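Input.
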Amino acid sequence: MDEILEILEKDARTGAEDIAKMLKKKPQAVKEAIKKFEKEGVILKYKAVINRELIKDLDAEVRALIEVNILPQKDLGFDKIAERIYSFPEVTSCYLISGTYDLLLVVEGRDLRTVARFVAEKLSPLENVKGTTTHFLLRKYKEDGVILKHKEENKRIAISY
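Output.
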């Protein structure tokens, strides 16, 4: 992979001037390369990794990993049904995987019932879906290579008499 892309993938806030210094290139050349990557669709989005557990006023959102077993369509394979599934707004990520299941989805909802309703009313009834297994995420320890620090729990010292 291109060195500029590697640097931006690790920290999207790294400026073109800093990248140029790291790579011993001219800042203008780095800026042009980044613009080209954006125009070609190589760079799709810049993202912040947020530790939601540390945000006090945020409503708790539920995230689930859903394994989906599907029947591929003749002459279309998995792509058409995957496109139908990833079009749902609840689906934040969709991957074709090897193993027992065909697709792995990351689904977000307001609460457990919202995700369960999505599976029961939208996902499972699809013609080519043969089965699903849902795993609710209980806690994130690391995301996109970043270790997430967690709130310190009240660690009271036990006193015995």
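The beta strands are 62-70, 91-96, 103-109, 129-136, 142-143, 146-147.
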